[in-house]
Amino acid sequence: MSGFDEATRAVRVDENTYDVHLDPGYAVGGPLNGGYLLAVLLRAVVDASPHEHPVTTSAQFLRVAPPGPARVRLEPLKSGKTVTMTRATLLQDDVPLIETLVTTATLNDVVPDWSDGPAAAIPPIEECLRLPVPDPSSGMTLSERTELAFDPPTVGWLDGRPTGRPEVRAYFRLTESKEPDPYVLAMAVDCLPPVIFSAGARGWAPTVDLTWHLRALPAPGWLTLLGSGRLIGDGWFDEEVEVWDSAGRLVAQSRQLARVGRG
């Protein structure tokens, strides 16, 4: 079992209840990464489902989740030959932190009937940039578990040269020797710096709603993450992320609504 597998493990208590432990190694300045929390929750959902893969997840983030013991509560809604639908809640001390609706199915590793290309181009990985290593006191422990190599213009905000557009593009993988799977994809769709940084904003930008779709099972190797936004206004912004695998296939898509960074 990899470190990520252990950090997202869900232990069955009964048919609708799972115990989990939220790992402090996946924090972003204090709060735990939302994609990591979804991966934890999805472990429980898939374990209880007759189907193998979480093909679509819609999540409402109610409260910040601190590290420590937690519980996933499941409410089966419908189950058939091809899909199962479940309401799943992540709780600590009986207080809901995340509410989700999850549809599971079983995907086959087949050639798609049709596929569009990436929404944007990204240079070869050797021409991309790594961000500076965060100070240990920053609480950015997620950076120790993940590796990101950025398209240089999309991190121009680091030295005061944002592009003025909500965008970010990067290659992604775990620092440990684990190949991507659906649970890694759940975290990957929420692992980029907020796209609003490139538009000139800074600070923590909390996610309110995130929906993501698993489109195919990823090939081994680096993932390519393409993030963009369509509208910033009244203290809100949206963020869309495409995830492409090393074989050039679209393997995940997400859209989230978040508050403009503050602080």
Automatic annotation (TrEMBL):
Domain Acyl-CoA thioesterase-like C-terminal: 126-260
Superkingdom field: Bacteria
InterPro entries xrefs: ACOT8-like_C, Acyl-CoA_hotdog, HotDog_dom_sf, Sec_Metab_Biosynth-Assoc, TesB_ACOT8-like_N
Domain Acyl-CoA thioesterase-like N-terminal HotDog intervals: 26-105
UniProt name for this protein: Acyl-coenzyme A thioesterase PaaI-like protein
